[in-house]
Design goal:
Layout lengths: L6 H7 L1 E6 L3 E2 L5 E7 L6 E6 L6 E4 L3 E2 L4 E8 L6 E7 L2 E6 L3 E11 L7 E8 L8 E9 L10 H18 L1 H5 L14 E12 L2 E9 L11 E7 L6 E7 L9 E9 L5 E8 L7 E7 L7 E3 L21 E8 L2 E7 L3 E7 L7 E9 L5 E8 L2 E7 L5 E8 L4 E9 L6 E8 L5 E7 L8 E2 L1 E2 L3 E5 L5 E5 L7 E11 L5 E7 L2 E9 L5 E8 L7 E6 L2 E3 L7 E2 L6 E9 L2 E6 L4 E6 L8 E6 L5 E10 L12
Parallel strand pairs: 1-12, 13-31
Antiparallel strand pairs: 1-4, 2-5, 3-4, 5-11, 6-11, 7-10, 7-12, 8-9, 8-11, 13-14, 14-15, 15-16, 17-18, 18-19, 19-20, 21-22, 22-23, 23-24, 25-26, 26-27, 27-28, 29-30, 30-32, 30-33, 33-34, 35-46, 36-45, 37-42, 37-46, 38-39, 38-45, 39-40, 40-41, 42-43, 43-44
Length: about 625
């Protein structure tokens, strides 16, 4: 058994709570009852957290409100709903309190007059694993007298949380703008962390992009996830819109995780996402619907989850149950969700899409993947998943009657995990567009990560994926420069007329008898210490790749299409067979472009380079 800590030690290490009734911890045995006190609300417990780095939640048994006030003292970091004491009634939080800092004890009174005689229960939440995110609640009891001015309004706390998020985004704008490696034509939020693209769709002349956005942090693990929103006429230049989905805080939701868009039978575009509650509580699948024709404002589609944990007939999917992707086939509507078993398939029982039945695990994996997509190409289907490693695809046939997916071939779309969390839409011309996240930028820069350039995704005659950059990206071009008919040597040849860190390059090489040639971008004055893109013996070799990338020259020639955007580099080759993304931190001032070969037998047939305009919304009005 854990020993009883003194108050000061508990405050420094984790948590101590005087708590009503039987403790039901959701922490996988991280909590342990260490003492009992027959005061306050009857049988009360003190519980302590095992270690500094755990996050947890715990709740009391129900009790009846007998007196006007619930009084207590709280010492906690400021983090609304995430480091908080909550009071629940009829499935909703009716009072909540966070702290003012781990060194300040605050006396709190909740006025519960309107709840006298009703059953309620308490929940304590510490959703942040950092040692300085701690909470202590003491002197908890019912009384007809208040100890301080009544507080705890959920509506006020939600508004404060939104204002706090807006201030955090604005406060980090200057810091983010000073990072020389931050892309300027790849989409990213004004500041703070961007994660998975979500719910992309086309309607009324606009392409809508939603994305995981953490307004409070530029790193993983802090703050919370909501759905940012932007729109574009061409998927090139983006207009930042207000936040689309905030957590349903009054429902105990702390994050809006990833999901997709689906047009329901009633013609409404719905956003489906995974609602993440306090640590240890089961996740639920929610849906939202727009309240205006421009899809700017959104509300809950139903007052409760559209898919509760867990649907009938299905096995327990585990706590990683997440990322709904809806699609239709043979008059039926299906949803893919990732689970501890792999990718599970559910079928809608009604057109309202709020009743579902488990059908099958259509793709098994080791561990729980993320962000499933399922795209149709004629009679073939492509499943795309992000399994904490390079994005995988599987092509095959799908039988809506048996709910089975027969895989014919599979592979990866990118040869490292800096391209991740795909999402797709059908554009105005009927093309399958693929979006993805570029991740791997550094923390603590006021921003982190960005959207990869949209790609057109197709299948070749053999069922293999082909990826091409969106043709509309040509709109960004300016100041074209060309070099042609250059015999390359083993010493890097710097192209004096071409340099920069915001460029698009199209290059064609003629191998001759040479087996090796390459292009260096973001190099120093001598064409060295940059990012090398090298062709050697039928393989493309680039930094950050552990396995060889096969690339066959056609008629003795090879083409490279490269996008450089500060720290983001995208490479296309092999007529769509290769599409690679890398994050590269070049030394300050390294902007040269150079070519090289193993001997004097390879030739640069032609290289065209374009400077590119900024494509993010530089006139963001600060509205969230």
């Amino acid at each position: 058994m854990m020993k009883i800590f003194t108050y000061s030690l508990i405050l420094g290490l984790a948590l101590m709570l005087l708590f009503a009734g039987k403790i039901e911890p959701n922490v996988n045995s991280r909590l342990e009852v260490i003492s009992m006190d027959e005061t306050m609300l009857g049988n009360a417990f003190m519980i302590a957290l095992r270690g500094e780095k755990a996050s947890f939640s715990a709740k009391s048994n129900e009790f009846i409100v007998q007196k006007r006030y619930l009084n207590f003292n709280i010492t906690a970091s400021y983090d609304p709903f995430r480091t908080a004491l909550n009071l629940w009634s009829d499935g909703k939080i009716i009072r909540t309190q966070t702290g003012n800092g781990i060194n300040e004890k605050v006396a709190i009174s909740w006025d519960l007059t309107s709840y006298k005689g009703k059953k309620v229960y308490l929940q304590i939440v510490d959703a942040d694993a950092k040692p300085d995110k701690v909470i202590k609640v003491e002197a908890l009891g019912q009384n007809d007298l208040n100890t301080t001015k009544p507080s705890g309004s959920v509506a006020q706390e939600i508004e404060k949380a939104k204002q706090f998020a807006a201030s955090s985004i604005k406060d980090n704008l200057i810091k983010a703008s000073k990072d020389d490696h931050r892309p300027v034509y790849h989409f990213r939020p004004p500041s703070q962390r961007m994660n998975d693209p979500n719910g992309t769709f086309y309607a009324n002349g606009y392409y809508h992009l939603f994305y995981q956005h953490n307004p409070l942090a530029d790193f993983a693990g802090g703050g919370y996830m909501l759905w940012g929103h932007a729109r574009s006429r061409d998927m090139v230049t983006w207009e930042q819109l207000p936040i689309a989905l905030w957590p349903n805080w009054e429902e105990g939701e702390l994050h809006c995780y990833s999901g997709g868009e689906f047009k329901a039978a009633n013609g409404k575009n719905l956003l489906f996402y995974t609602g993440v509650p306090a640590p240890g509580e089961p996740r639920q699948q929610w849906a939202a619907v727009a309240t205006d024709k421009d899809f700017v404002n959104w509300k809950n589609y139903r007052p409760t989850p559209v898919m509760k944990y867990y649907p009938e007939n299905g096995e327990d999917p585990g706590l990683n149950w997440r990322d709904p992707f809806l699609f239709e086939d043979k008059g039926k509507t299906f949803a893919l969700l990732t689970t501890s078993q792999g990718v599970s398939l559910y079928e809608a029982k009604n057109t309202d899409l709020d009743e579902w039945i488990f059908r099958n695990v259509i793709y098994k994996t080791k561990g729980a993947p993320e962000c499933p997509n399922f795209f149709r190409f004629g009679k073939k289907w492509m499943l795309v998943i992000s399994p904490q490693n390079p994005v995988e695809y599987a092509v095959g046939t799908f039988d809506a009657k048996t709910a089975k997916f027969k895989v014919e071939n599979k592979g990866v779309l990118n040869n490292n995990n800096q391209y991740y969390a795909t999402q797709g839409l059908i554009d105005a011309d009927g093309n399958q567009i693929l979006f993805g996240l570029i991740k791997g930028f550094k923390n603590n820069m006021g921003w982190r990560d960005c959207l990869a350039l949209p790609r057109i995704l197709t299948l070749d005659p053999y069922g293999k994926p082909l990826q091409h950059p969106l043709p509309a990206l040509k709109k960004l071009r300016k100041n074209e420069r060309r070099v042609s008919d250059l015999i390359m040597t083993s010493t890097p040849q710097v192209l004096k007329e071409i340099k920069g860190d915001v460029l698009e390059i199209e290059a064609e090489f003629e191998l001759g008898d040479s087996k090796t040639f390459g292009l260096t971008v973001r190099g120093d004055a001598d064409g060295k210490k940059g990012f090398d893109i090298k062709y050697e013996n039928g393989q493309l070799i680039i930094p950050g790749t552990k396995t060889p990338i096969l690339l066959e020259a056609e008629n003795g020639k090879e083409k490279l299409h490269v996008f450089i955007d500060k720290g983001a580099i995208e490479i296309y080759a092999g007529n769509g067979k290769i599409a690679e993304v890398r994050v590269f931190y070049a030394a300050k001032g390294n902007n040269s472009i150079a070519v090289f070969a193993a001997d004097d037998k390879a030739k640069l047939v032609e290289l065209k380079a374009y400077q590119l305009n900024q494509a993010n919304d530089i006139n963001w009005d600060g509205k969230i």
